[in-house]
Write a structure and sequence with these properties.
Layout lengths: L2 H13 L6 H8 L3 H11 L6 E4 L2 E4 L5 H7 L5 H13 L5 E2 H8 L3 H15 L5 E5 L2 E5 L2 H11 L5 H14 L4 H14 L2 E2 L2 H19 L16 H18 L7 H12 L1 E2 H6 L1 H18 L6 H20 L8 H7 L1 H18 L5 H18 L6 E6 L6 H9 L7 E5 L13 E4 L13 E3 L6 H30 E8 L6 H14 L6 H12 L8 E2 L12 E13 L2 E10 L5 H14 L3 H8 L4 H8 L2
Parallel strand pairs: 8-9, 8-10, 10-11, 12-14, 13-15
Antiparallel strand pairs: 1-2, 3-5, 4-5, 6-7, 14-15
Helix pairs in contact: 2-3, 5-7, 9-11, 10-12, 11-13, 12-13, 15-16, 16-19, 17-19, 18-19, 21-24, 22-23
C-alpha cells in the first residue's frame, strides 16, 4: 500500500470543511474510487478510524489526526518493529505499552505479533522483548544489547549510517553534529589521521556508549585486546570522553577511555609518525611501480602515496593484532569495479608476502577504495583524446573558452589550440572545436563541433557529450579487439555440471594445459586467487583467474550452464576462466568490463547463456 497516498486520504478528509465521498476523493487524489476504498480499508485495518455516512467520510471523533499521520512514518510491520527496537535500545527502563500503541496507531493484538517477530530476530543474541508492569522490556546482557545496536547500524551507505546515528542521538537529546564535531576537533588537536569509514566506526562506538548510558543502562565489562597503546592515544581518548561528558551532561565512566584508546590505537595513525616511517612509504612506492608494470596504470600521486601509506600502517597493525575493520560497502565495491578490485587483490598479496600477515576480503575492499579514488581523480582508465581548438577570438571570448575547457583537461583529454591560419590534419586529432569564422584550411572532420564565437552553456554541454561519445567509441573498438583475441572456438562448452568450484578450476585448467596455453602451476594459482575473494558476481557470472600473468597466450575458457551452480557467494550460469600473459592485463580490463556490462541484469545474462556456440557468443559480446 502506498504510504503517500494514504497520507493524502487522511489529509483530504481532515482538512476539508465538508465531508467528501469516494468519488470526490478519487477526483481530488487522481485515482479510482476502488483505490480510495482500499486506502480507507487499510487505515481501518485494526479499528474503525474513518467512518462513512450519507454525506461522506469523516474521522471517529476521538482520533488524533496528527498521531494518525505519524503512524505512516512507520507504514510497514518492519518499520514498526524497527521503531520498537530503537526505543528499547535507548530506554533501559522500558517503553510504556499504552504510549507505544498510541504512537504507532496499532492494536494490542498487532503489538503481540510484532513482539513475536522481534524475538525471532534477536533470539541469536540471547535477547528477548517481554511485558512487565505495563511496559515493554528488552531482556538480556548489556553486551548483547550493544551488539544489537551495532547490527542495526550496518548498512551499505555511509549517509544512512550517519542518519541512523543522528536519529538515535535525537532520542536521548544529544546533538549528533556537535557530538561529531567534538570528536573530530580532538583528533585534529592530537594530529591523528583516520579515513572516513574508520572515523564513522569510532563515532558509532562512542554514540552507542553514550546513548546507552543516557538511557539508563549499566556499563558492561569488555576484555581488551593485548596491544601496545601510546600515552598520546590514552590521553586523546580521555580528553574525548571528558569533553563529551561535559558537553552533553552524560556520566560515562573515565575507565571507558581505555576501550576508546584501544580503538584509536588499532584504527588510526599519527600523521607526524607516519611521515617519518620510511619503511611503509618505500613499500607503497615499490608496489605502485609493480602496479604500473603489471596493469599499465600509474597510481603515482603525492596525496595518494601519503594517505595510502597511512592506511597500510593501520592495516598491518590491525592484521598483526588479529583485528580488522568491517566493511559494509564490500559487496558494492566488488561488483561495481572488478578491475580495480583485482589491483587491490594484487597489492594484498604483496602485503602478505612482505609482512607475513593475512588480509580478509573486507580489508581488500578498503584498499580498492583508495585505489579507485586516485584512478577517478586522474581519469586513469579513460582513453586518450586529443582535441584541436581553432576559433575566432571574438572580443576576448577565445580566452574565456580556454578557461572553460580547462575543467575537461585531464591525463587523458588534451586540448591543442591551433593558429587560425594552420592546416589541421584529421589523423592527428579526435575532435575539432571551431567557430563559423575560424579557418578556411580545415580538412573534413567526422568529429567536429561548431560553436558560437560567444560560447554558451549549450556549446559546453555539446562538447562534453561529444567527448563522452568519442571515449565510448574508442572503448568499444578496443573491447572488440580483445574479445576476438581472448575467446577461441575450442574453449566454449555448454552445460558442464561439477560438484564445486575447485573441480571446475581443475577441469578447465586441464584443458588449457593440454593445449599449451598455461603450465601446470596455473591450477593452484587460480585456486589461490579464489582464497582472497571468490571471483563470482551478483550478476550470475564467475571469472576465475590467476594473480600472476604467466600464460603463453591470453585466453578465455567459457562454460555456459542453463541451470545455475554455486560459486562463492552467488549462483552463476557462466564460468569464464581467464589465462593471461604478463602483458595481458590491459586486455583483461576490457574483457572484464565487457562481460560485466553485457550481463548487468538477469535478462542480459540469460541472453548470453542462450548462445549455442562460440560464434553466437562473440556476436553477443561485441559492440
Amino acid at each position: 500500500m502506498e504510504t503517500k497516498s494514504i497520507i493524502g486520504v487522511i489529509r483530504s478528509i481532515s482538512s476539508n470543511s465538508q465531508k467528501m465521498n469516494a468519488k470526490e476523493l478519487a477526483q481530488f487524489l487522481n485515482c479510482s474510487e476502488k483505490t480510495v476504498k482500499n486506502y480507507i480499508n487499510e487505515i481501518n485495518c485494526d479499528k474503525d478510524i474513518v467512518l462513512l455516512d450519507k454525506e461522506g467520510y469523516y474521522f471517529e471523533p476521538s482520533i488524533n489526526v496528527d498521531l494518525l499521520l505519524d503512524k505512516y512514518k512507520y507504514s510497514s510491520a518492519q518499520e514498526c518493529q524497527s521503531f520498537i527496537i530503537r526505543r528499547l535500545l535507548t530506554n533501559a527502563n522500558g517503553l510504556s505499552i499504552d504510549d507505544t500503541l498510541d504512537e504507532l496507531c496499532i492494536s494490542d493484538k498487532t503489538l503481540d505479533k510484532y513482539i513475536i517477530e522481534i524475538n525471532r530476530q534477536i533470539k541469536g543474541l540471547d535477547l528477548s522483548v517481554g511485558r512487565k508492569n505495563g511496559n515493554l522490556i528488552l531482556k538480556g546482557d548489556e553486551k548483547n544489547k550493544k551488539e544489537l545496536l551495532k547490527r542495526n547500524l550496518k548498512v551499505n551507505d555511509y549517509s544512512i549510517v550517519e542518519k541512523d546515528l543522528s536519529s538515535y542521538c535525537e532520542l536521548v537529546s544529544i546533538d549528533y553534529l556537535l557530538f561529531k564535531k567534538v570528536v573530530s576537533s580532538i583528533f585534529d588537536e592530537y594530529n591523528i589521521h583516520v579515513n572516513d569509514y574508520t572515523f564513522l566506526t569510532i563515532l558509532s562506538h562512542l554514540v552507542i556508549k553514550f546513548i546507552r548510558v543516557r538511557g539508563g543502562a549499566d556499563i558492561d565489562e569488555v576484555e581488551l585486546p593485548d596491544i601496545k597503546i601510546s600515552d598520546e592515544d590514552i590521553k586523546c581518548a580521555s580528553d574525548i570522553i571528558d569533553k563529551l561528558n561535559a558537553t552533553f551532561g552524560v556520566g560515562v565512566p573515565k575507565e571507558e577511555s581505555r576501550k576508546l584508546a584501544n580503538l584509536i590505537a588499532l584504527k588510526s595513525t599519527n600523521k607526524e609518525v607516519a611521515v617519518t616511517n620510511s619503511e611503509y612509504r618505500e613499500f607503497v612506492v615499490d608496489v605502485v611501480k609493480k602496479v604500473k608494470d603489471k596493469f599499465g596504470i600509474s597510481l603515482r600521486d603525492d596525496e595518494f602515496l601519503s594517505f595510502f601509506s597511512l592506511h597500510i600502517i593501520n592495516l598491518v597493525k590491525r592484521s598483526k593484532s588479529g583485528m580488522y575493520n568491517e566493511n559494509p560497502l564490500f559487496e558494492r565495491t566488488l561488483n561495481s569495479d572488478s578491475f580495480i578490485y583485482e589491483i587491490a587483490v594484487f597489492i594484498s598479496s604483496e602485503l602478505e608476502k612482505k609482512y607475513d600477515i593475512s588480509i580478509p576480503d573486507t580489508e581488500i575492499g578498503f584498499l580498492a577504495f583508495h585505489i579507485g579514488s586516485v584512478i577517478v581523480k586522474k581519469n586513469l582508465l579513460s582513453e586518450e583524446i586529443n582535441v584541436a581548438v581553432n576559433m575566432f577570438d571574438f572580443y576576448g571570448f577565445g580566452n574565456l573558452l580556454k578557461e572553460a575547457l580547462e575543467k575537461y583537461e585531464s591525463s587523458s583529454i588534451h586540448f591543442h589550440y591551433i593558429d587560425k591560419s594552420s592546416t589541421i590534419p584529421s589523423y592527428k586529432f579526435d575532435l575539432l572545436i571551431t567557430t563559423p569564422f575560424s579557418n578556411n584550411n580545415i580538412v573534413s572532420y567526422n568529429n567536429k563541433i561548431t560553436i558560437n564565437p560567444m560560447y554558451n552553456k549549450k556549446d559546453l554541454h555539446n562538447i562534453q557529450n561529444k567527448l563522452e561519445e568519442i571515449e565510448e567509441n574508442k572503448n568499444r573498438k578496443k573491447a572488440n579487439v580483445f574479445i576476438s583475441q581472448f575467446f577461441n572456438p575450442l574453449f566454449f562448452e555448454k552445460n558442464i555440471y561439477l560438484d564445486n568450484e575447485e573441480e571446475y578450476i581443475r577441469y578447465i585448467s586441464g584443458k588449457l594445459i593440454e593445449n599449451g596455453i598455461v603450465d601446470t602451476s596455473f591450477t593452484n594459482s587460480v585456486i589461490d586467487r579464489e582464497k582472497y575473494t571468490p571471483t563470482s558476481f551478483e550478476n550470475g557470472i564467475a571469472i576465475p583467474h590467476a594473480i600472476e600473468g604467466n600464460a603463453m597466450f591470453n585466453n578465455a575458457y567459457i562454460i555456459l550452464n542453463d541451470k545455475p551452480v554455486k560459486w562463492g557467494n552467488y549462483m552463476v550460469n557462466a564460468i569464464i576462466v581467464i589465462a593471461l600473459r604478463s602483458d595481458g592485463y590491459t586486455g583483461f580490463r576490457y574483457v572484464l568490463d565487457t562481460l560485466m556490462n553485457k550481463t548487468s541484469n538477469r535478462d542480459d545474462l540469460m541472453k548470453m547463456v542462450a548462445c549455442k556456440d562460440y560464434f553466437e557468443l562473440i556476436d553477443y559480446l561485441k559492440y
